[in-house]
Amino acid sequence: MQASQLPLFFQHLRSELAQAPNEVRRLFHGRGRHFEGLEQITCDWLQGQLIINLFKEVDEVFLSELKQGAIALSESELWSEKQGSTIVIQYRYADGAPSEVLVGELDVRPIVEESGLKYQLDIGRNQNFGLFLDMRYGRDWVRENAKYKNVLNLFAYTCGFSVAAIAGGADKVVNVDMARASLAKGRENHKLNDHNINQVSFLGHDIFKSWGKIKKAGQYDLIVIDPPSFQKGSFALTKDYKKILRRLAELLAPGGQVLACVNSPSVTSEFLIESMKEEAPQLTFRERLDNPPEFMDVDSEAALKVLLFS
After folding, report:
1. Do 196 and 226 fall into the same domain?
2. Maximum Cα–Cα distance for the chain, whole Å?
3. Is 234's pLDDT higher than 90?
4. How does DSSP classify residue 105?
5. Tens-place pLDDT, residues 88-118
């Protein structure tokens, strides 16, 4: 990370902020490696709150100039026009990912919008605040293709896909995630959007020990698989993904679709395509969804991969 590159960071940040809609957005994505010397910094706009994430420890000069630039931004006309209130640096590399508030007061549980839908975030206590912004196009696709469908959402987290599916007219969504606290947040996300909770199920179980319950609620017209890259003691992507794919034949309704996702720089699209051929040969790869342009990456295979099969 190079302090000499920070003027580029703030130039890009101001340009993106100026044209950002009144929605949650990634404004700077250094991890896509398009900005030399800024590979370990990102910046998200949470409709008034600016969250700067550092993924690697930086020297005192870099940190001092970063803070000075952020404070200068808060004193600008642009900041006033966008009704900015808070600027925070989150040290993602440090134990507990602590946050430092530079400007204003941090609202740790803001409600934001994406594509017209509301989501409750949780900032500063965890590495992830409750909505993966690079999956915006995936949620949009589900919303556009969920009408009258029975949807299974595996590794549901805070149920972003579920919210999108119900908003798109799905008949029913079954969310499965072993983190019951995340599912509770998902329930609140549905309530924020005035959804009928009777159409939504929340199964707080280990997927690999719950196939009976999952199958009982099927068959499914659309299955979304969006696992973590690694979860200690419960999920290792390259080993365990195939265990899910081989279950698709008994879960998927005739003519059903599968949206299979992977967000590990070391696992390519080809892994998913070949694994699907091996474990669920009745399904054919149809397309890879684009990622939002703000998540541009010098290597598309290192970025999020969202693949459609049917």
Report:
1. yes
2. 60
3. no
4. -
5. 999 988 888 888 999 999 999 999 999 999 9
